[in-house]
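I keep forgetting this: the sequence line spells out the residues, with the fold written below as integer tokens. I include a record here:
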Amino acid sequence: MQKKELLSPAGDFETLKQAIHNGCDAVYLSGKKFGARKFAKNFDEEELKEAIAYSHLYGVKVYVTVNTLIYEREIEEVLNYIEFLHRNGVDAVIMQDLGLISCVHDRFPNLEIHASTQMHNHDANGLKLLKELGVTRVVLARELSLEEINNLAQTTDLELEVFIHGALCICYSGQCLFSSLLLDRSGNRGECAGICRLPFSLYEEENKVPTSGKYLLSPKELNELTNMEALMHSSITSFKIEGRMKSPTTIGYITRLYRKMINQIENGEKPILSAQENKNLHTLFNREFTSGYLFQEKDQQLINSKSPNHYGIPLGQVIAVTKKKIKIKLQEDLNQEDGIRFLPENKGMIVNYIYDQKGLWQKEAKAHTIIEVDNKIGLEKAGGTVRKTIDHQLEEELKQYTPKKIPVILTVSASKESKKIKVSLSDGKNLVEKEEQVVEPATTNPTTASRIIQQLQKMGSTPFVVMDIKQSIDEDIFIPIKVLNEIRRSLTQELEDCRRNQKPEIVINKKDTKLPSFSSPLDKPSLTALVRNGDQLKICLEENLKAIYITEESLFQKYQHLPNVYLRLSRLNSPLDFSPSRVLLGELSSLIPYQKASSKVTDYYLNVTNSQTVSYLRSHQVERVTLSVECKDEDIEAIIKAGTNPNGLEVIVYGRLEAMIMKYRPLTLFNTNNTECSHTLVDRNQEKYPILEEKDGTHLLYYKPLDRNLETLLEMGISTFRLEFFDEDKTTTRNIIKKYQNRLIKLDEIW
């Protein structure tokens, strides 16, 4: 059985310690910038140094997340930051930005790079390209099944990392723009606002569809504890726990349970999760649990539409409510400082006071009794349920852990003839030695071999424990105990320093990231368009647009003889029955099967935000690169000033952008998959988000079209502007094209 890595998150130093001492093999964490969990505590530079040293002391690897998109203005800053990490012995960096990966591999050729799940890693072609870029490990998309992962492993020698526990994104990672579009908080920049955890209603045309709850995009929590035997026999290299925003005790306990299961399986035992362990796990954090797509769970097992929050465990029933008190019949023990949540109101609070039926205050209450708590949340009616979401006693108990010990071999020799004692400690990799000429013949009270060993193996509060002793000690000798203690302290400190300060060889190739200046004349401004039906296509053909991207394969095949017609490919690389010569690529991995296409344009889903990514794509003969819709004008200007020829850039200026693409199919789940009708999700503000179910999954479009100013873009030299049509009719389609054509004409006349 292949040795597996257990990889735990660390949002702060206390979580790091919990993860290490509860048995992880590696941790992943972030600095204050460039990590996809901006709102975790994270580590400043001094804390990063100490975190790396502390982890290495205990034989734990450290992977630092640099897994956000990088803007042009940040490239040198982030490269300097990665150099700092490299010099301080980080074991790998986890990255999302395609251009930055290319830069980092060129500049630091012996620094290990892991491709973040934010890169939408889901097929063999994508993995092939990542290996060419110098990546050694990929974090796979959560949407893959174990069977698909094992099949994928047959096509690559890259290490495969898979999430086995924690929060799930309902959208393919790295493909979600919801938070960015709605609140200008980019999930690709670590600022996700968790829009998927908010309430939505589902509509078919103008009719509201009955649903079992209102949290229609909120997945349950991933939990693979009961599937560990299958995972241990898989091709997965690393088992990853999500949770840099979770508490230290929660991460420590989850790590402990997975360590136990892995050890049991490695020892040939049946892995067992006790009822109490399972209860503790549910108490610490759950949104209900699912095995997810890894074990092909259906949508009804994936979504918890009733609550997006920590669900806890059942505590009791609300039997009476007044303005001041809530009366509860308990089915579990309740203690002061426990957290509770009331359903269906979904209101939570910390219990500060517990009252018995006589109104007397008590610190704790037993199951099957009736108690009252203060109505601090304005609960209005009885009949609901109560759940325990924080167990204060359990939290306090889990704050205490047994420190991990490092086994060492103690070797001792002491000779009357040479008058020397020689002592060494070895951890199997590092060897430290000390020799002292302090051995004297004993006159009355000899220092016996057993006493010498006893003193030298007293590891006390050090991280070491002596597991084996080798000795050659003469009889009738005397060595001062003080000397033995000094030798022991000196050796343990030296060995600790060796482990803390281990660093790889540093190779740095300083290279200028600025591209050569372009010299070609600027193209004449023109429009392109994405169309979804024949009516839109005909209008775009009549208006002679530079390029027309068609979403329907059959429609494209009918018009593919025309030189300005392209097929927009899926974001999930699925083979076609024909070979289109002009394509709009929706994912990185499409560069391989369509490398011989006569014209290739990359779509905004590739998240291009800097000149290095543009340069990489152009090296694969991409004709035009569509920039990320998250790029503001100043970001685009910086890309061009870095040496990028604007003739090969495309910017979307109109249309409904895709907020999400999901494997999850809400229309099927809620029995409303009528393809003749239009469907929308409606948020709390009554904004309507169209739903498109296509063969590659469910596409959720933003509630309003983008309408971007052209003036600044034209001044920079951008000449290709895209319009994205959704349900516009012929007249609307033509009017929108005319509107933007007139804008371009007027601006051209002004200049």
Observations:
- The first strand starts at residue 5 and ends at 9.
- Residues 430 and 498 are 7 Å apart (CA to CA).
- The chain has four domains: 5-168+220-283, 313-398, 407-500, 526-656+705-750.
- The chain has a mean pLDDT of 94.
